[in-house]
Amino acid sequence: MPGPVKAVLTDIEGTTSSIAFVTDTLFPYARTRLADYVAAHPAETAPLLDAVRAEEAGDPVETLLRWIDEDRKATPLKTLQGLIWAEGYADGTLKGHVYPDAVDALRRWHAQGLALYVYSSGSIAAQKLIFGYSNAGDLTPLFSGYFDTSSGPKRDAQSYRHIAGEIGLPAAEILFLSDNAQEIAAARAAGMQVLHIDRDGGSGDIASFAGIEL
Question: Are residues 86 and 146 in the same domain?
Answer without folding.
Answer: no
